[in-house]
Structure formats: C-alpha cells, structure tokens
C-alpha cells in the first residue's frame, strides 16, 4: 500500500509570516467500535511507543475505555500526558486486499492528531518512507491475519 | 501512465481545526471546531462518507501528541 505524504501550508515557527508547504506521512485508517466505524488520518510516528487516538472516537463508536488503566505518555520537553486505554479494531485498504486487526490503543481528551505508533500499528508493517518522492509504502508483515 | 492524484494542500486557515475529507482523502469537504461540525459541513456540501483529521496550529512545528 502506497500513500502520498500529506501537504500543509504553515507559517514559520519563529513568528515569521512567510507561508511554506511541509509534508507529513499520514495514512487513512478505519477505527471500528461497537456502534460504528470512523475513518481518520493517522500520523505514522516511528518515535511513538504506542498508538493514540482522539477522544471523540470513544463517544462516537461506543468504545469501552478502562478508567482504571490510564497510560502515562512522555514527550519531547518532558511533558507527561495521561490517556485512557481501550481496545478497537483497525482496518486499512478495501476489498480483497483489506487488512484488519485488534489493538489496545490510548485515547486522549485533548485535540490531537491520531498517532500511529509501534504498539497497535507499526509493529504490523514494514514501512518505507521515501522523503524524495514524498510517499510512504506499508507492507503488512506476518503478524496480520491474511 | 498518469501520476496518482495528490491530496489537496491544507491551507493555513484550517490550522487548529477538524477536517472532514472526501472518502478518497484527496479533497477537504468540511471544516469545523469539532469533528461533528466538520462532518456536518461536509454533509451540507453533499459528502456523507468522510475521513477525519485534526490539523495542528500552522505556526508550530508538530512532533507528536499535543499536550
């Protein structure tokens, strides 16, 4: 499965007003809960230990989250964020080549990009980032059911 | 052989917003302050099957989960 990097118009982070275009490797993934399916764009994040999804999915998909099993996430700058964990089914692709698997992921209450980290997502793929062509290729490994 | 279509560039004024993309994730169909608002805007534009994304602020470099 090959996906183009997504393009974003941004301003300089030092306060400048110049607009430029940057590229981010996000891919579409469907999240399945007991009451439906929502497709989101998720950031392929090789620096993330786990997969983190936005909270609206909990409410919209009827996902059970473990209030007694909160994960602590530490990012750059030593900031710690607490998230609730829950189990979902993830799906990619369509038709005969579609993939699906179950994963325990974190749900964060703040507004966030969906982060596709190692546990729950990247562990199931061989991933090639082509920075020159601005595209990413995901090849499922043997951990996924065929 | 034709090149695959590229997704629309996300404009600066969509930063900090929720987007509802068309089902092929190539075009922005709706924008809102919540996922529901973005989906409702897409629906008003005639798009019912959407792909949802939150866009980080345009003047900050993004490095992962936003605390």
Q: Roughly how many Å is the radius of gyration of chain A?
A: 16 Å
* Number of strand segments of chain B: 3
- From the helix content, strand content and strand pairing of chain B, which structural class follows? alpha+beta
Judging from the principal axes of the Cα atoms, what is the shape of chain B? globular
Biggest sheet of chain B: strands side by side, in what order?
A: 2-1-3
Oligomer: heterodimer
Shape descriptor of chain A reads globular
Helix content of chain A: under 10%
Annotation keywords:
heterodimer; A: 146 residues; mainly beta; 4% helix; B: 67 residues; alpha+beta; 3-stranded antiparallel beta sheet; 3 strands; globular
Describe, in plain words, how this protein is organized in 3D.
The complex is a heterodimer of chains A (146) and B (67). Chain A has one helix spanning 56-61, and strands at 2-4, 6-11, 19-24, 26-33, 36-44, 52-54, 65-74, 80-92, 99-108, 114-116, 125-130, 135-140. With 146 residues, chain A is mainly β. In chain A, strand 7 and strand 8 form a beta hairpin. The radius of gyration of chain A is 16 Å and the shape is globular. Chain B has one helix at residues 35-44; strands at residues 18-22, 28-32, 50-54. In chain B, a hairpin with a 5-residue loop joins strand 1 (18-22) and strand 2. By secondary structure, chain B is α+β, with helices and mostly antiparallel strands. Chain B contains 1 helix and 3 strands; from the N terminus they run E-E-H-E. Chain B is globular. Classes of the chains: A mainly beta (146), B alpha+beta (67). Chain A binds chain B through residues 4, 6-13, 15, 19, 21, 24, 26, 28, 38-41, 43, 45, 47-48, 52, 54, 56, 60, 73, 75-76, 79-81, 108, 110-115, and chain B through 4, 6-12, 15-16, 18, 21, 23, 25, 34-36, 50-56, 58-67. Strand 5 (36-44) of chain A pairs parallel with strand 3 of chain B.
